[in-house]
Specification:
Distance between the termini: 91 Å
Radius of gyration: 26 Å
Number of strands: 0
Structural class: mainly alpha
Order of helices and strands: HHHHHHH
Helix content: over 70%
Largest sheet: none
């Protein structure tokens, strides 16, 4: 009789141990998921910070003004700098779109529309986009958002962004 009761208690303890183990695994999976989300968000912020740092430490903004007001005066080196910059900007929006689809970020379309108006408003930006529309890394959402913004905005021949800001002051 004692052996039977002992066996019953051992089975109960083993079952409790299995349940505790399953709960621990669940907690660890949850922690890893949260850590993964935090890493994705941190990576996105790091990309934005690096873009902001490049803007502050380089003449990329002057190149964009030149690409709108004097696109024919761009040197090959300047075109390559602008092209590299546009690849980085699109890569950020690609990542933001992925984070949005995973539920880790807000919808990046509004920011992408603003960037499209800013970076693809002149002849150079539009020609670059047309030449790179088949780019393997560009998702349909990012491509369509930029394309729609380009199609709905007239080509700018004068950089008017700062004029608009000054008029609001």
């Amino acid at each position: 009789m004692n052996t039977s009761k002992l066996s019953d208690w051992m089975q109960i303890l083993a079952s409790v141990g299995v349940l505790v183990g399953i709960l621990l695994i669940f907690v660890e999976i949850r922690q890893n998921t949260e850590l993964g989300r935090a890493e994705h968000v941190a990576g996105a912020y790091e990309m934005w910070a690096s873009i902001a740092q490049i803007e502050l430490q380089s003449d990329i903004n002057e190149l964009f003004v030149k690409s709108i007001e004097q696109p024919d005066a761009l040197s090959i080196s300047e075109m390559m700098d602008l092209s590299s910059w546009l690849v980085n900007v699109i890569a950020i929006y690609q990542r933001q779109t992925t984070l949005y689809q995973l539920g880790l970020a807000s919808d990046p379309k509004a920011g992408l529309r603003d960037a499209a108006r800013y970076y693809f408003s002149g002849r150079f930006g539009r020609a670059w986009f047309e030449a790179n529309k088949e780019w393997i890394g560009m998702t349909p959402v990012v491509y369509e958002t930029i394309r729609d913004e380009i199609e709905s905005t007239p080509i700018q021949t004068k950089f008017e962004y700062m004029d608009r800001i000054k008029s609001q002051l």
